[in-house]
Amino acid sequence: MTTTNRSKLSNLFALVPSGVPVTSEDLGREGVSADLAVHYVRAGWLRRLARGVFVRPDAPLQRDPSLWLLQRLVPGLHVGGKTALDWHGVRHYVSQEPKLQLYGLRSAKLPEWFTDAFPAEYHRKQIFGSDAIGMKHVRPFEGRPNGPNVSAPERAFLELLSEVGVRQPLAEVRELAESTYGFRASVLGELLGDCTSVKTVRLCLQLGHEQALPWAKKLDPARLPTGSDRPWVSQTNEGLLVLKK
To answer: Which of 107, 150, 155, 91 is nearest to 127 (CA)?
Structure first.
């Protein structure tokens, strides 16, 4: 390798950390044109993941930087539901092949370069009225710069409840609820007050009272959007789900 090529390669690797996917726009801001990126791919210095997305060929993809890139592409994308609970240590059992549960505000399909490396499911979901202007209690995981956005445990629990009767068995939710003893009633109350899903609000209150969880005693159902006085009824794979006010 010539001295010039070594210099170019050194400069490129300084711009593109190992295992971190970058876009054509990212490279362009650093002075790497589209034609030069193609040259780097042909030279084996970059690997093309998809149109306009590249990574260094010397290491596997890193999960968190990959998620951070997706967040730039999909409005509101964040780690939520069961995965977020697991990351926060709220779990009942560990799945043999857990899939990342990702949520966002718009319909989207996860790119194959991501799902091939990190099995994942994406759900378009907006069960909180204020999400269109700001995602309540969604923050970079552990406060890390450029870390993936993750739901707080209280929000993740409500996201999981919203899936009951659709993709999520109620029996597993009951088991997970046992680990919510330390949830913050103030955060749950704020989120429940903003929740547009009557099922989610009622199920949360019902599980909290059934298991005598401390946060449930601090919530006032009369101040929450529990809907009409009629029972909320739905047929699920586990039978009829009836949630009274």
So the answer is: 155
Residue range 34-92, pLDDT digits in tens: 899 899 999 998 999 999 999 999 889 999 999 999 999 999 999 999 999 999 999 87
Q: Give the pair of three-digit tokens for residue 232.
A: 């909320």
Q: What is the pLDDT of residues 149-180, one digit of tens each?
A: 999 999 999 999 999 988 888 889 999 999 99
- Residue 243, phi-psi category: left (phi > 0), alpha (psi -120 to 50), beta (remainder): beta
CA distance 143 to 203: 30
- Whole-number Å distance between alpha carbons of 23 and 2: 27
SS3 of the chain: CCHHHHHHHHHHHHHCCCCCCEEHHHHHHCCCCHHHHHHHHHCCCCEEEECCEEECCCCCCCHHHHHHHHHHHCCCCEECHHHHHHHCCCCCCCCCCCCEEEEECCCCCCCHHHHHHCCEEEEECCCEHHHHCCCCCEEEHHHCCCCCEEECHHHHHHHHHHCECCCECHHHHHHHHCCCCCCCHHHHHHHHHCECCHHHHHHHHHHHHHCCCHHHHCCCHHHCCCCCCCCEEEEECCEEEEECC
Over its C-alpha atoms, the chain yields an Rg (Å, rounded) of 22
The answer to whether residues 169 and 203 touch, using CB atoms and an 8 Å cutoff, is no
What token pair was written down for 42?
């042909």
